[in-house]
Amino acid sequence: MAQTKKKRRRKQRGTQGGRIDTRPARGRARSRAEAKSQARSRSSKKKGGPRVPGPPSWSSAWKKGAVAAVLFVGLLAFMGQNPITSLVVGGLMLGFYIPMAFFLDRFMYQRYLRKEAQKRAEREAQRHGAGQAEG
Questions:
Q1: Count of domains in the chain?
Q2: How far apart are CA 25 and CA 83, in angstroms?
Q3: Rounded CA gap, 52 and 118, in Å?
Q4: Per-residue pLDDT for the chain (135 aa), expressed as one digit of tens each?
């Protein structure tokens, strides 16, 4: 009986998440610890690490103020206050919270920018300091 020659296929190993790695293994096989560290580094890149605050905007401050005012009105209504009174107090809270949220966002963003500038300056100093030590 004549045999047909088939191209040998590589086994595809899948992960528990359903991803299939089809790239051929390079060199030696990874140890369990190496595989874990590689997976951790991959997942930490997706999460993005520490949260970076965005520049402040009045629209985001308005949204935060609206959410706080609605929650406050709901809390007052739950506690048995007159609906008209709770709406008035909610409006006052809205007027107070919008500028407060904007200025707090601005403070946090400026603090983030200062820290980033300080880190950048330290990296520059290390780079220039290391260059002078060699020469």
A1: 1
A2: 68
A3: 16
A4: 667 777 776 666 677 777 776 665 667 777 888 888 888 777 665 565 677 888 999 999 999 999 999 999 999 889 888 888 888 988 999 999 999 999 999 999 999 999 999 999 998 888 887 655 554
pTM for this one? 0.55
Which single residue is written with the structure tokens 């709770």?
86
Six token digits for residue 27: 């060199």
Q: Which residues contact 20 (CB under 8 A, 6 or more apart)?
A: 12, 13, 14
Listed residue (12, 97, 18, 13) closest to 62, CA to CA: 97
Q: Which residue range(s) make up the domain with 81? A: 58-134
In the block, residue with structure tokens 């506690």: 79
